[in-house]
């Protein structure tokens, strides 16, 4: 239902056949997608997939080699100045001067954005309250935790009152508690009607936070849709077997493929991944086949399709192989 609601809204961002090449290396190739007003749209993919390049084209820091991108009808190249007046940006690298206080950061930025003294005096306290930094506003940023620095980054991104906010890996390296708080802030922006575009390589973040995601790998979009839609689109639940006798895996796969309620069987490094229509019907038959072939099953895992399954299905590998490690907050 939310999807239908989104599609009836105006298009905020229109990306058409976007490409970017650096010295013969194609960072982004033939990307096309639309983002609707007031949605949280995620670019999900491993490091080097082309997410940040796409983001930098949208915020006018890079010119595309081919194709085009527009924000509320403004072209990212021809109308770059007007685009910049419409958007906010929270970079991955924390642009924090550790000797300034949180409030001084926002005052400095207000000058750079040419906000009037009255506007700045109104907006800065509002933003400090919004990101829950009122109590720490007059402490030097060097005393802030990772989560607090990220909140200050978000306040800086919201200072120009943007229609669209771009977040590059908003919770990279944060502890779980801080990540959940940032998610709450991002949802609050959607409630206020701001369109949010974010890059991430955290599956749970894309799943929990985004209305729709584009899975990007090797500079191309591999899949696009609401997380639930993509999971349901895989069809069937997943049964994973860990088999002790590696030399019998192929025989077992052949036997299982012919069983009822089985959709697909894939060999893994230590057993089989089996997509099933009905676990109630499939599991007894799978166990019976393993028994018949004298295959000892060390481990059986059953789950509904997850976003990682979607990623593997569309890219042939797991995004988890590339996950960054969390730091302290």
Model description:
- There is one protein chain.
- This protein is 37% helix and 27% strand.
- With 329 residues, it is an alpha/beta fold.
- A six-stranded mixed sheet has the order 6-7-8-3-9-10, sandwiched between helices. Strands 2-1-4-5 form a four-stranded antiparallel sheet, covered by helices on one side.
- Helix 4 crosses helix 5, helix 6 runs parallel beside helix 7 and helix 9 packs across helix 12 (307-315).
- The two termini are 37 Å apart.
Short description:
This protein has 329 residues and is of the alpha/beta class. Helix content is 37%, strand content 27%. Strand 1 and strand 2 (25-36) form a beta hairpin.
User: Major β-sheet, in short?
Assistant: 6 strands, mixed
Q: Note poorly predicted spans.
A: 324-329
Structure class? alpha/beta
Shape: elongated
The total of helices stands at: 12
**How many β strands by DSSP?**
14
Order of helices and strands: HEEEHEEHEHHHEHEHEEHEHEEHEH
- Our Rg estimate from Cα atoms comes to 23 Å
Please give the structural blueprint.
Layout: H1 2-7, E1 11-22, E2 25-36, E3 40-44, H2 51-58, E4 66-71, E5 74-75, H3 80-86, E6 87-90, H4 102-112, H5 117-130, H6 146-158, E7 164-168, H7 176-191, E8 195-200, H8 203-209, E9 212-217, E10 220-225, H9 227-234, E11 237-243, H10 249-257, E12 262-267, E13 271-276, H11 279-292, E14 297-303, H12 307-315
Parallel strand pairs: 3-8, 3-9, 6-7, 7-8
Antiparallel strand pairs: 1-2, 1-4, 4-5, 9-10, 11-13, 11-14, 12-13
Helix pairs in contact: 4-5, 6-7, 9-12
Keywords:
alpha/beta; six-stranded mixed β-sheet; four-stranded antiparallel β-sheet; 12 helices; 14 strands
């Amino acid at each position: 239902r939310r999807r239908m609601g989104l599609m009836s809204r105006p298009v905020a961002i229109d990306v058409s056949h976007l490409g970017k090449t650096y010295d013969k290396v194609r960072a982004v190739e033939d990307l096309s997608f639309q983002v609707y007003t007031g949605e949280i749209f995620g670019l999900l993919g491993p490091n080097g997939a082309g997410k940040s390049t796409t983001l930098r084209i949208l915020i006018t820091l890079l010119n595309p080699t081919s194709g085009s991108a527009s924000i509320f009808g403004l072209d990212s190249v021809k109308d770059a100045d007007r685009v910049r007046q419409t958007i906010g940006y929270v970079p991955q690298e924390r642009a924090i001067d550790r000797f300034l206080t949180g409030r001084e950061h926002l005052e400095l930025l207000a000058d750079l954005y040419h906000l009037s003294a009255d506007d700045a005096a109104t907006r800065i306290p509002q933003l400090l309250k919004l990101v829950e930094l009122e109590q720490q506003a007059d402490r030097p940023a060097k005393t802030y935790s990772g989560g607090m620095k990220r909140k200050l980054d978000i306040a800086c991104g919201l200072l120009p009152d943007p229609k669209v906010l771009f977040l590059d890996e908003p919770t990279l390296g944060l502890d779980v508690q801080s990540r959940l708080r940032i998610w709450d802030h991002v949802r609050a922006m959607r409630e206020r009607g701001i369109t949010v575009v974010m890059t991430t390589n955290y599956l749970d973040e894309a799943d929990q936070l985004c209305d729709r995601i584009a899975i990007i790998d090797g500079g191309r979009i591999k899949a696009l849709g609401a997380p639930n839609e993509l999971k349901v689109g895989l069809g069937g639940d997943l049964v994973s077997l860990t088999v002790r006798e590696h030399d019998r895996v192929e025989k077992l796969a052949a036997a299982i493929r012919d069983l009822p309620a089985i959709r697909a069987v894939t060999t893994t490094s230590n057993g089989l991944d089996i997509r099933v229509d009905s676990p109630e019907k499939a599991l007894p038959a799978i166990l019976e086949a393993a028994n018949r072939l004298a295959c000892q099953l060390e481990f059986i895992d059953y789950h509904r399709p997850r976003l990682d399954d979607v990623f593997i299905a569309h890219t042939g590998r797991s995004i988890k192989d590339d996950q960054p490690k969390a730091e302290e907050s």
